[in-house]
Amino acid sequence: MMGGFSLERYAEDIEAEAKGARQIFESFMQRHNVSRSTNTPESLSFGWLKNAPVSSITRAIEQLTMAASSIAMAVEEQSTTTRDIAGSIQTAAGHTGRASAEILSVEQAASRSVTAFGEIADLTLRVSSRAKDLESSVAAFFNRVRAA
Known about the structure:
By secondary structure, this protein is mostly helical. It has helices at 7-31, 54-147.
């Protein structure tokens, strides 16, 4: 055992992976009617190469090629979709940034309006006060004119 890694466990894992790969391959070949060799192979051939008719091998290769092409097309479609989604996200982020700037602009304008309304209210109070003073002064003037 080396640093928590068991060579025995590693060998078992490799054997299990090889068995799984063999099952997947055999299942594929059977689904596509490729005849199995009756000889026991000495190498990793899954028994399909010896005594298999050329047409079976050709058919299997064609099926594998079509499967690989289908996978490649699916990957390309997924890549295109991913790029489209990324573009949409980028566009949405740009719109969000512009909307945030517009909201800030509206907030600043509203703040300026509140300030202006405050100033107008103050000026209105002063004008009203002056108007009352003027009214009092005019009334006093007329009272003096009448008294004279």
